[in-house]
Amino acid sequence: MIRPLLLRALCCTTFVVALPVGAIEAQRTVDVGRAVTSTASIRIFGAFAELRIRGWSKDSIALTGTIPSDARFDGGFVTSTKGPSSGAKYFLETASGAPSGKLELRVPAGARVWAKSGSATIDVEGVTGGLDLNIIGGSVHVAGRPHDVNVESMDGSVTVEGSPAWVRIKTATGDIVLAGGSNDAGLTTVSGTVRVPSGRYERARIESVTGAVDFAGEIARGGSLDIDTHSGAIDLDMPRKTAAEFDVASVAGTIENRITERPAVPSREGRGQEIGLTVGGGGARIYVRTFKGNIRLMQQGSSKEF
Amino acid sequence: MTHEHDHLELEQLSDWVDGRLSPEEDRDVKKHLALCTTCSERHARLQSLIAAARALPGEIEPPPSLWSDVRSRVVPVHSRNRQWWLLGAAALFLVALSSAVTTLLVRRPPVIIVRQGATPAAIIARPLPALVRAVDADYAGAIRELDESLAEHRRQLDPTTVTKVEASLHVIDLAIEEARQALAADPSNLTLHDLLAASYERKVELLRRASALLPST
């Protein structure tokens, strides 16, 4: 009696162990490519778990990677009777619906890429065209100098380290990091944090409900920075050469000013605090509003301990 | 819209809002709006502008003294120049009227959503200042529309996603509630007004994005 029981147990164990191995092995490769125009438009959406997008100097698209063998992978290139294709569209659907598969998409640097997935890691480098990326969870990382970047995420974090001319990032709980600068930046979150550790900005707008905002970028002369939060704390750590007019108010929070000697005063509207400053002769406009977040105005190089 | 990544012309968007497009164009616009954030935002702004315009009085009477003032300036002028004076005065009047209308529209933030059931009974029971009611009303339509759409299709969304969206909506609702209460106590506080409107905008934006996650979009 003992031996059959042992055998059965052994069989079961083998089956349990073999199942995931089998699942992992049940993959197939994707390898498609074609000549396209240098500003081709590529759309890829569905249940991919990992997508690497690389801009290259060739006028062609190459999509490679592995996907589950039972996944549906459809799409193709825009047909053109004359010359190269103007774009491509691909769709991945897994049997379980869960994100799976790793893809690498190589595109002409000037291409425009549109990608949408449920939960995915998207990593982009070397694209100078446009990016429109949409995820629910996971993360997005963009490096380089894309002309325009639009990223939407629910709880996925978003990091843009390049310097897109135009950038919009929207998350629900995902954290946002923008470094590198932009002519026109708009960052919006509900409860994620927003960090802008560096870069030069012509126009920047940051909006949050409860997420903290930490801005340490440079505002161009004549540029503007607008920040509003409900309860998120706001730290402005401005470069020493900043030339700007500050208009800062917190309805129910505090304001600590380390940029000049002047302390914040009770608000003209009867509650909270406000402060108006002109530093470096002015030039840029910095407008900060929060309902109950605390605001700290600092100059880079000075102590952040209050 | 000639290309899937081009943006919709304002005229095209306006025609679509007015229902003046062919069924094929209508499908194209709907498809584009579902995918394009920029045009979707422009559409929301257009809708809010229309809603705000609808809320304006049907006629705006000029002050009684205006015409007599214009006439007193026009009458002494040589008949050949009279037409020019009249045109000038009319132009000035139109500019003033246009400015007044623009001011009214600009002072009203873009319209958006209050979820049904999201407003606590205590707040409903308390008389709210006109300013708070105005902001609420501005956003109510859009919020209701998106909310209903989301409620109708929520089964198509992954339950985890629904949980995430609802958690964020809850955070925004709390912020809206706090701002409303503060504005109710301090109706002249323009900062509060702006912050309340901003929270409503966050909510509309989140609902719009959640709707965009539906498989059909």
Task: Please explain how this structure is put together.
The complex is a heterodimer of chains A (306) and B (217). Chain A has one helix at residues 2-25; strands at residues 27-46, 50-56, 60-68, 72-77, 85-93, 102-108, 112-117, 119-125, 130-135, 137-143, 148-153, 157-160, 166-170, 176-178, 182-189, 194-196, 200-208, 213-215, 218-229, 234-238, 244-250, 255-257, 265-266, 273-279, 284-290, 295-299. Chain A is mainly β and 306 residues long. Chain A has a 26-stranded mixed beta sheet that branches. In chain A, a hairpin with a 6-residue loop joins strand 23 and strand 24. In chain A, 47% of the residues are buried. Mean pLDDT of chain A is 89; it is low at 9-23. With 217 residues, chain B is mainly α. Chain B folds into three domains: 1-55, no CATH class; 64-107; 109-217. In chain B, helix 1 (10-17) crosses helix 3 (37-55), helix 2 packs across helix 3 and helix 8 (159-185) runs antiparallel to helix 9. The model of chain B is unreliable at 75-80 and 100-125 (pLDDT under 50). The chains are: A mainly beta (306), B mainly alpha (217).
SSE order and pairing:
The complex is a heterodimer of chains A (306) and B (217).
Chain A: H1 2-25, E1 27-46, E2 50-56, E3 60-68, E4 72-77, E5 85-93, E6 102-108, E7 112-117, E8 119-125, E9 130-135, E10 137-143, E11 148-153, E12 157-160, E13 166-170, E14 176-178, E15 182-189, E16 194-196, E17 200-208, E18 213-215, E19 218-229, E20 234-238, E21 244-250, E22 255-257, E23 265-266, E24 273-279, E25 284-290, E26 295-299
Parallel strand pairs in A: 1-5, 1-7, 2-6, 2-8, 7-9, 8-10, 9-11, 10-12, 11-13, 12-14, 13-15, 14-16, 15-17, 16-18, 17-19, 18-20, 19-25, 20-26, 21-25, 22-26
Antiparallel strand pairs in A: 1-3, 3-6, 4-5, 21-24, 23-24
Chain B: H1 10-17, H2 23-35, H3 37-55, H4 64-74, H5 79-107, H6 121-125, H7 130-153, H8 159-185, H9 190-212
Helix pairs in contact in B: 1-3, 2-3, 4-5, 7-9, 8-9
